[in-house]
Amino acid sequence: MDKTNSGVAMDYHQAYHTSDETSSSKKLDTGREQNKEGDIPYKETSGGVESVDRPPAQGLTEQTDRIAVNKSTLDLHLTTHTGEKPFMCKECGYRTANRTYLSVHMRSHTGVKPYKCDLCDYSAKTKGHLDDHMARHTGEKPYMCGECEYRTADRSALTVHMRKHTGVKPYKCDLCDYSATQKGDLDKHMTTHSGEKPYMCGECGYRTARKSDLSRHMMKHTGDKPYKCDQCDYSSTDKGCLKKHTVTHAP
């Protein structure tokens, strides 16, 4: 990176860290003069200097340390130092440093899902979620665990899976020392403190705190026994019972 471009980038960064508005203005002007000489293509907008979609000037590479092409980009970067989160959801109090993240978050309240699957009626609030869904149509599982042979089409599923290897359990109960790898598991645990049993059988009134327990209970009414022994005609409503049964076939 040549000295001229390096100086411009550092001037941008230091001017905002020292809160010297006068100096900052001069530095931005210096940046504009540099642009006029042809090193960095730009165009003027109502928000300041904005880069155009052209190759970067010689000497400016991805290794450049946080060069801000415009003021808004630098302001967003500075929040990583200050921890400031100026954008807040009025519905639930969620806060973020990025206006775009707030826009995506608001879809959780509005129900807007702009990303549509063209193979089924699935829709998503983010493109990433749609990409994960599309992999289910293709059968592709691009995310692979480096510790075992687990593969998945969902990046977040891989993140959760990796906690089995690392032992990380980020979801903590504030009433006891229980912790979990997934929020859903913590939610289930919290019902042991509250006594809440939201899942009810429509046939007999049985209630439970766990959806999986209700599914298993319903098999008593339907007679379904999905867990089958591959060595005899034994079947069960419970996977654990099948495992115990298979021991009887062991030599």
From TrEMBL:
GO cellular component, one term: nucleus
Alphabetic keyword roster: Metal-binding, Nucleus, Repeat, Zinc, Zinc-finger
Compositionally biased intervals (Basic and acidic residues): 18-42
Any one of the GO BP annotations: regulation of transcription by RNA polymerase II
UniProt xrefs under InterPro entries: Znf-C2H2_CTCF, Znf_C2H2_sf, Znf_C2H2_type
Region Disordered, annotated ranges: 1-61
Main location, first listed in the record: nucleus
UniProt keyword Lyase present: no
GO molecular function: DNA-binding transcription factor activity, RNA polymerase II-specific; zinc ion binding
C2H2-type domain span: 87-114, 115-142, 143-170, 171-198, 199-226, 227-251
Localization, UniProt: Nucleus
Protein name as annotated: Zinc finger protein 525-like
Organism name: Branchiostoma floridae (Florida lancelet)
Source organism phylogeny: Eukaryota, Metazoa, Chordata, Cephalochordata, Leptocardii
